[in-house]
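Proteins fold reproducibly. Take a sample protein:
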Amino acid sequence: MTRKGRADRRLDLIAAAHRAIVRHGTEGVHLNHVAEEAGLTSGAVLYHYPRLSELLVDAHHAGMERFYEQRLKRISGMRDPAEKLVVTIRSGLPHGPDDPDVRLLNELGGAAPRNRMYALLLTTLYDRQVSLYQSILDTGAALETFRLSGDSLPIARNLVALEDAYGYRITARHPVIGPQEAAELILDYARTATDNPLKSSH
């Protein structure tokens, strides 16, 4: 098998593990579940990932890319801090109750107290998201687009905490809190914290 072929196969296995985790839970998923999702034998999975735990960590990490790397890339060409803040808030929420990436994070959060690696992954993601928000807030304050109500760090931490809380409510199928309602609730806090109307096209 070529090097590219092996790399592609590992990506397929990561995607299969992602689906298996969402279906069976982080602590309930087994090798045969991943193999079934991938359409392979268990031996074929082990050829590329001799340790299932390694594959599960890679699957969790890949699922997290959307909430930092992809958000960072999405706003990288924007100049207006207010636009950046609105887009960042909206892109951190589930698309709906069955959003697989957010369900994966929920599974990870449930297992984190018993697994140091999962706890480290979640802590790292949280800290990176906070730094992303803090950078937007500090830039906005420097440009006088924002007049912050306090230090940027606690504001950034609150924004991430609100994302997490409302994201959970969406995946728990709260009857009146969907992605749009959650975004507006977080934006309400952000408007107060930045003294900016944060107009949204949505």
Remarks:
- DSSP finds ten helices and no strands in the chain.
- The CA atoms of residues 71 and 88 lie 6 Å apart.
- The mean pLDDT is 92.
